[in-house]
Structures are given as structure tokens and as C-alpha cells.
């Protein structure tokens, strides 16, 4: 369903759900889930919402407050908040976010273990497993129109488990993991540049062959697919939040021509850029 909320753009969707008594007794369950495209007016400042929030930044930048301290959030990051207590987050520049408000008999215990070292703001070495879990939940409402409580709980558990693994392996992660994380930020910040395998491998002091293997292992994507995904996600953001021409968007997203950009966008999303801009997709 559409929602009228300051800073939330028209293409955004939110779904509310009332869990069954069985779900409340034994599962994690959803209170609401959404995918928002927001401008610089989006801000949430609440005293309580009787749930836990799991929010993932797909593109753009935002912030959240943890212990009264403002923390910046970039594309790829997650935040886990206990919304039974005051909470505050938003964006000064615009962002696209995928999120769920959830609860369950073990929700508080999971939250306490994951956040015991004040790690509510999470940037796991492989964010895509967690992102896919959130996307599967959202798809049950947005596409399938048939949420299955057991599968919802399974996917929430999978996402939270990713965060637990991240927390317990922080001290023993391979030394190249930090380099790959830094490289992901570099790619996100330089999508308008030519990004080649040789140049990126050189930045992390690895051979192109070994770098390709490590990148796939760490992210779940080939380098080429990751760059394409990052560029298309950025293009979606520009299409929904600006009036930039297709030529300017293609340039900002690293495409040499708007025809190449349009062809790639259609292949990845099954929509032309103009269709995506003009419709509630």
C-alpha cells in the first residue's frame, strides 16, 4: 500500500501484517515491512513503536542515533534498533531503504546478543545474504501477496544469524576482508569512473586472478556483476529522486552512452529507465 509520510516518495510501498497467535507464540513475525525511496526530508523520531527495526540502506546515505550519538549510514549498511525505546533515524540527502518491523518470543534475546558490544550499526563482510533475506520477506507481500509465517520467521532468523556470525568472527576474519570492504566503498563512490579488474586488484595488492576469487567468496558476486548492480541501484535512485536526464544519469553511473545504459537497465530490471521513473515500480 502507498503511504503519505513526509520525505517518502510516491513509488514507496509499505505493508502491515497481524501475526497469528501461533506466530506470536513460536516465530519471529512481521508487524510491517516496506521499501522506501526518500528525499532529504525523511526523518523518524519516535518514543516507541513496540517492535524491533531491521533497516538496510540500498542506495544513498542516511543516519541513525545510537546512545545519543549520530552515526552515518551508507549503502550496504544495516541497523538493528529496539523500537520499544526512543529511536531516531533519517536522511539528509535522500536514500532508498528496505526495512521490517518485527517481533517474536526471542527477538529481545537476539537483539541483546547481537548488540551487546554496541553493534546496532552493522556492515557485514558479505551483506548480500542478509539483504536477500529481507528481499524474500518483502517479496512475499509485494509480489506473491501470500506471506507465509514460517518462511518469514526462517528469513528473519537467517538475517539475524548473519549478524551473529559477523560478530563472532570479527577477530578472526582474513586480513583481506577489510580490504574488500574498503574496495566496496570505493566502487560505490566512483561508479562514474572506469572500474577495471586490474586497477581494482592493484588497489588491494592482489593478483587479478586471486582478487576475482576472493571478491566472489566475500560478496557472493563476480566483480562485473557487483559493479553493474551498484550502477543500476544508483540509477534507480537518481530516476526516482531527481529530474536528471537519462544522458546525465548514464554519465553519473559510469556508462559511456545513454543507449548502453538503457539496454543494461532494461536487461536487469525488465523496465526501461523512463518506465521505472514514471511508474510505481
Explain what the structure shows.
The structure is a single chain. This protein folds into 2 domains: 13-170, Sandwich (Jelly Rolls); 175-278, Arc Repressor Mutant, subunit A (Orthogonal Bundle). It has helices at residues 21-26, 107-114, 127-142, 149-168, 175-189, 197-203, 208-219, 223-241, 246-252, 258-269, 273-278, and strands spanning 13-16, 28-38, 43-46, 52-60, 62-66, 69-73, 78-82, 87-90, 95-104, 121-122. It has 281 residues and is an alpha+beta fold. The chain has a 6-stranded antiparallel beta sheet with strand order 1-2-9-4-7-10. Helix 9 crosses helix 10 (258-269). 35% of the residues are buried. The model is unreliable at 168-175 (pLDDT under 50). A hairpin with a 2-residue loop joins strand 5 and strand 6 (69-73).
Amino acid at each position: 500500500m502507498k503511504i503519505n509520510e513526509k520525505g517518502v516518495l510516491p513509488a514507496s510501498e509499505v505493508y502491515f501484517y497481524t501475526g497469528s497467535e501461533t506466530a506470536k507464540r513460536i516465530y519471529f513475525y512481521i508487524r510491517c515491512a516496506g521499501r522506501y525511496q526518500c528525499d532529504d526530508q525523511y526523518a523518524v523520531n519516535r518514543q516507541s513503536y513496540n517492535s524491533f527495526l531491521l533497516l538496510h540502506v540500498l542506495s544513498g546515505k542516511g543516519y541513525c542515533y545510537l546512545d545519543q550519538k549520530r552515526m552515518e549510514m551508507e549503502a550496504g549498511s544495516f541497523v538493528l534498533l529496539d523500537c520499544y525505546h526512543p529511536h531516531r533515524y533519517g536522511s539528509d540527502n535522500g536514500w532508498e531503504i528496505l526495512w521490517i518491523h518485527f517481533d517474536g518470543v526471542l527477538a529481545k534475546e537476539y537483539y541483546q546478543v547481537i548488540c551487546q558490544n554496541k553493534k546496532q550499526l552493522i556492515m557485514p563482510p558479505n551483506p548480500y545474504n542478509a539483504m536477500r533475506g529481507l528481499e524474500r520477506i518483502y517479496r512475499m507481500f509485494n509480489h506473491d501477496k501470500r506471506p507465509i509465517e514460517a518462511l518469514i520467521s526462517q528469513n528473519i532468523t537467517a538475517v539475524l544469524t548473519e549478524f551473529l556470525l559477523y560478530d563472532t568472527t570479527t577477530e578472526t576474519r582474513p586480513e583481506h576482508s577489510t580490504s574488500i570492504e574498503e574496495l566496496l566503498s570505493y566502487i560505490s563512490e566512483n561508479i562514474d569512473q572506469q572500474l577495471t579488474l586490474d586497477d581494482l586488484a592493484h588497489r588491494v595488492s592482489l593478483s587479478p586472478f586471486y582478487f576475482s576469487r576472493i571478491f566472489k567468496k566475500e560478496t557472493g558476486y563476480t566483480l562485473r556483476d557487483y559493479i553493474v548492480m551498484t550502477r543500476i541501484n544508483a540509477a534507480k535512485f537518481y530516476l526516482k529522486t531527481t529530474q536528471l536526464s537519462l544522458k546525465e544519469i548514464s554519465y553519473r553511473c559510469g556508462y559511456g552512452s545513454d543507449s548502453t545504459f538503457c539496454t543494461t537497465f532494461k536487461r536487469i530490471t525488465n523496465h526501461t529507465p523512463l518506465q521505472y521513473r514514471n511508474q510505481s515500480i
